[in-house]
Design a protein that fits this description.
CATH topology of the largest domain: Immunoglobulin-like
Shape: extended
Strand content: 35-45%
Structural class: mainly beta
Number of helices: 0
CATH superfamily of the largest domain: Immunoglobulins
Order of helices and strands: EEEEEEEEEEEEEEEEEEEEEE
Number of strands: 22
Length: about 300
C-alpha cells in the first residue's frame, strides 16, 4: 500500500467461467482515478506538461493537450515537423520539478518514450513493440524547483515495421514517490504527455537506380500494403519491367502502378508496365514471415535472360 491515508486493505478473489476476479477495499479509500498516491504537495512532483500553461493540476483542462511542448522532435530547422521513417530522429523530453522544494543529489527517476495511433485515449502501459526506449536518470546535482531537465532519445523506426501517417509520441516519467497513473487520457496524469505528429517516409537518396520498399503493418490484411519505389536513372526504359525475388511467400489482393505479367513461383514475380512515377503498390498484402522480408529487384527488359540485371 502506498496511498498516503490508507491504513487498512482487504481483498478477496473468486474464480468464474471467464477468469479469476479480485475485489479490494481500502480504508481510507485509495486507488482513485486522477489522484496521486501522495498529496499534490509531496516533495517529489515530476511533470511533463500537456501545454505551455500546464502547472501540473489534474486533470489539465486547457486546449490542445495533445501537443505537449515538452516533447521535441529533431531540434533545428525541422523541429516538430515529422518523424522520418528509416532515418535517425532525435527526440528530447523535458521533465519539470513541480514539487515544493529542490530535489537532492541521488534521486532516481525513469523517462520513457513510445508511440501510438492518434486517439483521445492512449493506453498505459503501451504494448512492448510501441515502446521506443527508457532512460534512468540519477541526479548528480540538486534539481531546482520549477526548472526542467532534458532526456534525449535517438529513434530510427524501420519503414517496414511502422505505418506512416498521423500518429503520436507519448512520454512518461516514473519515480518511486511519484508513479505513473493508469488513466484513460494523458491529461489526467501529469506524469504523461503526448505530441501528435506525422510519421512520413524518408526521402530517397539521389543516386540513380536506387530502389526501396515499405510494408505497412496494419492489423487487418485488407489494410496492409507493400510499396516499391524506383528512382530512374538515365536508362528509364530498363525499369519498365522488373523481376521481384522474395525470400518468403507473399500474396496480395490488388496491384497499382504495374501489372503482374509472370509468376513462376510464389516468391518470384515479373512486373511489367510500371508507372513512370516509379512506384508499384500491392494492397491487401499477406506475408508469411514479415520479419524476413527483403526484396531483390532485377531489371527485366524484353528478351532478357531468366533474371536480367540486378537493380537493388
Amino acid at each position: 500500500m502506498i496511498w498516503k491515508d490508507t491504513k487498512e486493505l482487504g481483498g478477496g478473489k473468486a474464480a468464474g467461467t471467464s477468469g479469476v476476479y479480485w475485489v479490494c477495499r481500502y480504508r481510507s479509500a485509495g486507488n482513485i482515478i486522477g489522484q496521486k498516491p501522495y498529496s499534490g504537495n509531496f516533495w517529489t512532483e515530476l511533470v511533463i506538461r500537456d501545454a505551455e500553461d500546464d502547472q501540473g493540476k489534474i486533470p489539465y483542462q486547457g486546449k490542445n493537450w495533445w501537443q505537449s511542448p515538452d516533447i521535441t522532435v529533431n531540434p533545428g530547422p525541422d523541429t516538430d515537423k515529422a518523424i522520418h521513417l528509416g532515418e535517425p530522429n532525435q527526440i528530447v523530453v523535458c521533465v519539470w520539478n513541480k514539487g515544493t522544494s529542490d530535489l537532492p543529489v541521488g534521486v532516481r527517476y525513469t523517462v520513457s518514450l513510445g508511440w501510438d495511433r492518434t486517439a483521445a485515449t492512449v493506453p498505459y502501459p503501451l504494448p512492448k513493440d510501441q515502446v521506443i526506449g527508457q532512460v534512468e536518470e540519477v541526479l548528480g546535482s540538486n534539481w531546482k524547483k520549477d526548472t526542467p531537465r532534458k532526456t534525449s532519445f535517438t529513434w530510427r523506426p524501420l519503414a517496414s515495421k511502422i505505418p506512416f501517417g498521423h500518429h503520436c509520441l507519448v512520454a512518461w516519467v516514473n519515480a518511486l514517490q511519484d508513479p505513473v497513473l493508469d488513466t484513460p487520457a494523458v491529461n489526467y496524469d501529469d506524469n504523461r504527455a503526448q505530441r501528435n505528429i506525422e510519421f512520413c517516409k524518408a526521402p530517397s537518396p539521389g543516386e540513380d537506380g536506387y530502389g526501396r520498399f515499405w510494408l505497412n503493418p496494419q492489423p487487418k490484411i485488407s489494410d496492409r500494403s507493400l510499396e516499391i519505389t524506383f528512382r530512374y536513372g538515365s536508362d528509364a526504359q530498363l525499369l519498365r519491367r522488373v523481376r521481384l525475388h522474395l525470400p518468403c511467400s507473399v500474396e496480395f489482393n490488388e496491384i497499382t502502378g504495374g501489372e503482374l505479367v509472370e509468376r513462376s513461383e510464389a516468391d518470384d514475380w515479373v512486373i511489367g508496365n510500371i508507372d513512370p512515377a516509379g512506384q508499384v503498390r500491392f494492397d491487401g498484402i499477406g506475408v508469411s514471415q514479415p520479419e524476413l522480408l527483403t526484396i531483390e529487384v532485377w531489371a527485366q527488359p524484353e528478351g532478357a535472360g531468366p533474371r536480367g540485371a540486378p537493380v537493388c
